[in-house]
Amino acid sequence: MEALIFQLYGPLASWGAPAVGETRPSADHPGRAALLGLLAAALGIRRDDGPNQQALAASVRFAVKQHSAGRLMRDYHTVQVPGRDKKARYFTRKDELSVPKEKLNTVLSSREYRQDGLWQVAVLLNEQSDWNLDELEAALRAPVFTPYLGRKACPLAVPMAPQKVQAKGLREVFAAVPSRICDQQARWLNLPESVDYYWEGDAGDIEVQDTRQLTDDLISRDRWQFGSRREHHARLREEA
Description:
Layout: E1 2-9, E2 12-13, E3 15-16, E4 23-24, E5 26-27, H1 32-43, H2 50-59, E6 60-68, E7 71-82, H3 93-97, E8 104-115, E9 118-125, H4 133-141, E10 163-166, H5 170-175, H6 185-188, E11 194-199, E12 210-220, E13 225-237
Parallel strand pairs: 4-8
Antiparallel strand pairs: 1-9, 1-10, 2-8, 3-5, 6-9, 6-11, 7-8, 11-13, 12-13
């Protein structure tokens, strides 16, 4: 098994989850859609470039080692927007706020973030892939567009440090490249003794503990359409 390993850490991260109403929740780890978006940004693939977005989605699969999901933070927002008016067109935020105050509506929302989460990601190529791991590694070292942790307000705090690894299974793959944030990261980040693994397909050396059906498999980023996929999970004690 050959994989490309990189790390994700920042003060804040927000990994999109299905949202209903005012709440914008965050998953505890990056899902497939978020990782495809990050990889596409590194490669310079624009959101409206449907063919290359779909080619990338067909080329790779991911596994995640979660050292810490971080602490949950909720950010309460109030936003004023004009009511619906078919005759009016607003090109900027300034245009929206220029209408009379009595025509402004207040929208409430609650957005979730993860504080000080630490994840490692493994990129594995499918049988038919338009990219190789060397190209993906080069892109992550010098991204075309700025990568972020789910939202533009969530920048990376350390380099992604991509590295190719050859191993018999996913646990061995991740063990070959320890995460490196700081010398005393276990203490400062309050890392638990157990880690969570999330993956697609066959892990090789990790036994499945549970499987979830998720709806984050990219179909069209233009139309914001996603299909379903199966994600396996296991929680294991981290070896010293």
